[in-house]
Design the sequence.
């Protein structure tokens, strides 16, 4: 997480002030429940809110840090500072709880906050993809497998494909959000020995979480592993779309281009350059987010009822993965929204192979005319290879091929070379993806 | 995937004969649909089933390999061999389809088959965990955080915790199974130019899959990334439980032990050894499965409408990840089922720290008796540190501490040292995890 | 490791018969040393060689497996089978040693054998790259940054670049080979309590290894982590070159092409296709090898004097990483050796941007003629952007630009548009890389 | 990289001011060389140093950021700001160079600076390990394989083992440092078209680097991949030692303990806790550093002569990996230096298994007394298993075993139970590791 690749909305989640605020809410809600079941005085709970419900400022954070420098324990430092505001009633705060109750529940609140932003990001990406998909639905372009011209598709189909992929990612993220939206207030080693389970239920409800069915002082880390793994999958989809755009922008293809603002410089040495730097950047950011998946999985196997090895990992990947992915999704949405498409280049590339893209249709026509599949394949390939090697026109070659001509008259052959043949089901696909066409 | 860590049921899925069988079914079902919509003769579809529906044997696989050696194309080799059995009607097979239609749909069938076995494996693990959890529900044992004695839990709670974790894994795997249970029969670059979408719908229904909303010659690989990532999470949970058992078996703890069969040798040099080799093995297998997550994610960003870089990865991790995880889950279930628990050792360890584990309860009692949290903490820690350093008895020290004694009478202090205090909510937790206690 | 991506020479290293042979040599050499220092009778050592030095066959391997099924211990099974051949003297075999002495030393022998093959593979790649580099040294082609035309380079330079990269990889692999070329015969927990250090020295010398300075029953796994990490770096270079070729082959570029054999089929559906399937395959294989780096690193932190979690990992990644990389390097060498280069396409692409590639030279000329760098940049960019947008001729535009014309006369401008300007240091670079030009 | 896990010395390397300073030096040294070979006026080069050699301050960094916000190009922003100080001579700065010349050479300077700190860190770790190794050389303790008591070692041997491991890491890091200590000043696409190779040689010499033999606008990223992979291996060794200490500190073992300062709090809830939080933290930090290895490897395959996908990755992992590892190594050194060892606990654990640890020696004595290895193993194991199950005394059982007694008289048996037998080669090992004993 570096400022260059960060958006304020997401970084705020990871600032100390947000963390301390969540800690306070956990403690104060817990006090309410403790008061309700008669463990602490109701007045004390009220006073804790009254005196404690004040904003966390950098100054307060600094004070907490100062205390932690001595105690070497962050939650105790937090409680000590809080006591300075609350006074004697502070002795009822954190009653029966253990640090992990606060830390783990807080982390899950932060991750759900982050997930909500990421879901909104995905919506922005989805909206951009949908808009471009419909706008470009009928712009026929070359489809490529292995980087080699294959058969025609449309530019809109490309965007529809990514829309479907990001829809899946949205679904996965929602599911991953559920996975980490739990609350544990179960005390040391998770037995509720010193805290009634009703406290957990109350705090969970207040924070929009579900009680963790069984916690062992910590909320189990398979939840977080699944969460970060899901971010890794989404990052891989970001890379997928970024690489598509990088390919489309390369000089020899140049069917599309990232928006290049006036005043922008492509290269310090070569003033003529217009580089797909945003999507290249996204490719790198995807690697970063993916690199956090394995550490998150290595965090699962904590020792016995807990160890704290996960903590340093999460202090880094918690912010890093969410902030970086948030930035990446927004950058991606911007790229899609403003992507410049060059229809002339699209058309030019489409015709580059002199009709070779119709080879399958000719193959099928030959088999339907009674030629064996093997013979049909050989006949078509024989002529196709000449196009590659001699830049000949495919249709002319086929007409001149006696074996082919014996099966398909020239007129029929000509009719096979028709782009509309390839786009006739675009609406079907759009309906599947968007529910409309 | 090596025989040592494989079970036949899972390896069979990845044998050529199963693959070719699935390919045949895809092609033959497609022919039915093509016949139904009038593209090929109904009689031809019938004959294709009649003549083609014969078992794939190693001999047939060898024949296909032979053809592939020449054509360098596996699906064409398959079709050529099939034609040797079907005769002239074979020209209707694969009509309008592309290799990826067959390969990708087949891979997804294999992955759903594998997922079904893994789900059954998880059920075996869950059953074993549930059985042991109830059996050991009330065996009080030491709970440990940071490897240090904390407060009592029960052995049954440990198993309940893992049960909840594996329940989550089961849910995740079901969801991952849905993610890869799709079928694509959309032809080159996925436009349905040469094949009617109804064919895809028919084949999907017959194979228990859903049609892929939009495929670009390939089924999008974010689906597979999510699938393998989920296997990585499950593997991490395997490691989690394995490490718990390794800890419990270490000589100084020895609360539990992997079953050690008569005739088994622990060490070639040291005849006295009884080593937790199965769970150590599981720790390693988890690393292996996890190592396949990133390659699967790197597969997502295929170029344009497809490239084939994913193929070599999947030829290895498809079998390797599923076979290894299947083996690991079964080994794990066996370890849990037969784990030997030593209640005497459990009890001995529980008492090792001379009552220190009640430190929190004393802390709470002091605060409730009116001492500030800070002072209470200091009082308890002061006496606790003496126990660590001088192996003194904690209760005796507390009684002798004038500040403590001033707040809590000796009798009350003694009553605080009660294990039942820590187990009173075990039933609550069991009900949350198992729905019963 | 699957047959499809394996070469026999490398797979042989990992067959049981090679492993057992190495085990025998370790044991027999150890007996020689034990006899030499008087621990066992010299005659016994002689007899062990005489009766034991017989080939390991699949039949013997099967017998060993059979014994292991009972003892659940592979080295004991091996020793038991060996005793069936050697008779009573077998009681002197393995004296004072522990299984790990045999297993770990053997693994390192296998890894050095594998490293030797990989070094030879790298030599084949290097030779191919050098040959093509010199052959294509002067074929001027477009250099591209960000996929965008930048300035001219030569095809030979591309190969020289990869040659330098693979030279580095060769050096790294040699260094990694040294890292794992050690021998440990130090007995249980590595104290030499039951075996004299001179035995280790003797066996090490015989097997071409160095004695491990200190082993703790196992040879420390940081050595193996470094080894597999190095394979991961080499795999990444394979991917690097593979992706370069995939780019050069894409239809719109098509400056080079993998050799396409007669009879080969590019696509079952589209007979016209010629796909870079080998380099796509290499891209995937690189992911696989890279996926083994983290598991190898996770193996380092074994518990205390050893645990066996590394073993299952190494049983898989030992063969998988070396066999896959060996296959990949050979495939890569073949691709480079036979790569078809199309000079006409190279030339055509070079001219595609109407002279824009000379923009930097014009920029420099303007600054040298006294214009500020900022103004020069603006002047050049202003004209360059017109070329992008209007496909105009860059030189013509510059001549017509009054500000530019005021600084550089038309004649001089024309002279700046000279490819030789860009290739004048090719020989310098070749001398640096190859020691000759 | 977060403040909590950072040391100022290392973070300074990654601050903008250090980066800009290095950029300036590269540019200014290049000007010297350009002046020397007559491309620019000698006076200009002198003035560039005179006016430009002023400290980079946060204020200057802010000004550069401001310019970058408009130009969207960091090097151009830097040059523009520099021009504000240098005046008209600034037009000679960056002549013939491309941004990557500056950026990549700078990154390598930063990485060598970081490597130098890390080498010093390793020295601190090595010193601590050596000191403790000698101090504890003769403290006999239990050696454990699989977490199970095996045979005696000494505490000093443990530290010697890690010393050898960190010696190897030091060697690897030196080698990795060499790998990234290169300088590229080769201009756009690396052809030296606009810049004489002598400039590169001059700048390299001034900065303590070697000229990159062939660069393609960028310094090839296999160098960086190897560098970060090496950091990953070192991090794994950190984890290795951390886990050893965590095991030694667990309550049931407690042979050693991290230093616990007065005023420190182990747990907010349980005042009695003394947790190995530093080594747990190190375990997590190791995961983080390791997570950056694969992204660095994915950076290798840049497109054609360069793309910029590596940049975002390196902006994050450059600082993160070096800062985190630097912090971890220093924390580790501190833990080792201050580690509290408890000799009584060491001795107690050593005797825990009632002499079982001598089982191998008895086994060998039996074989030397003429019993077959198989029978000896069974005799020893038979008695050993009784010790496990009935907590009997191993020596007594052996004496009472008629088969054993028939081979070894009671007196001789007693003599076998001697710890010095296990430590007789400690000096040999120390000499191998430290060159002295």
Sequence:
């Amino acid at each position: 997480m570096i400022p260059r690749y960060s958006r304020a909305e997401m970084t705020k989640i990871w600032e100390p002030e947000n963390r301390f605020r969540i800690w306070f809410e956990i403690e104060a809600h817990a006090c309410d429940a403790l008061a309700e079941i008669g463990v602490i005085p109701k007045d004390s709970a009220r006073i804790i809110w009254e005196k404690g419900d004040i904003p966390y400022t950098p100054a307060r954070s600094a004070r907490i840090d100062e205390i932690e420098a001595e105690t070497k324990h962050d939650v105790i430092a937090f409680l000590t500072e809080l006591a300075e505001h609350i006074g004697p009633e502070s002795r009822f705060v954190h009653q029966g709880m253990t640090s992990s109750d606060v830390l783990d529940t807080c982390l899950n609140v932060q991750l759900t906050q982050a997930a909500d932003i990421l879901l909104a990001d995905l919506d922005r990406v989805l909206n951009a993809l949908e808009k471009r998909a419909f706008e470009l639905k009928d712009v026929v372009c070359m489809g490529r497998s292995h980087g080699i011209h294959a058969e025609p598709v449309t530019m809109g189909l490309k965007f529809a494909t990514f829309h479907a992929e990001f829809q899946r990612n949205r679904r996965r993220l929602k599911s991953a959000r559920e996975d980490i939206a739990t609350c544990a207030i179960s005390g040391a080693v998770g037995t509720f020995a010193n805290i009634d389970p009703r406290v957990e239920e109350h705090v969970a409800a207040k924070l929009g979480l579900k009680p963790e069915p069984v916690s062992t002082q910590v909320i189990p880390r398979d939840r977080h592993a699944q969460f970060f793994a899901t971010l890794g999958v989404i990052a891989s989809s970001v890379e997928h779309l970024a690489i598509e755009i990088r390919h489309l922008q390369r000089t020899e293809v140049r069917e599309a281009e990232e928006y290049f603002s006036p005043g922008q410089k492509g290269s310090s040495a070569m003033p003529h350059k217009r580089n797909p730097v945003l999507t290249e950047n996204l490719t790198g950011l995807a690697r970063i987010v993916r690199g956090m998946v394995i550490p998150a999985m290595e965090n699962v196997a904590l020792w016995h009822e807990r160890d704290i090895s996960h903590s340093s990992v999460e202090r880094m990947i918690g912010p890093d993965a969410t902030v970086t992915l948030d930035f990446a999704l927004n950058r991606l949405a911007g790229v899609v929204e403003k992507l410049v498409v060059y229809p002339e280049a699209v058309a030019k590339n489409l015709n580059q192979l002199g009709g070779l893209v119709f080879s399958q249709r000719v193959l099928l026509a030959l088999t339907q005319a009674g030629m064996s599949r093997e013979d049909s394949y050989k006949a078509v390939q024989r002529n196709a290879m000449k196009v590659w090697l001699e830049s000949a026109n495919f249709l002319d070659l086929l007409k001149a091929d006696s074996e082919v001509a014996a099966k398909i008259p020239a007129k029929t052959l000509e009719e096979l070379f028709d782009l509309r043949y390839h786009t006739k089901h675009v609406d079907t696909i759009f309906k599947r993806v968007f529910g409309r066409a």
Summary: Chain D touches chain C through 93 residues (CB under 8 Å). The domain at 97-261+273-352 of chain D is CATH 1.20.200.10 (Fumarase C; Chain A, domain 2). Chain D has three domains: 1-95, 97-261+273-352, 356-416.
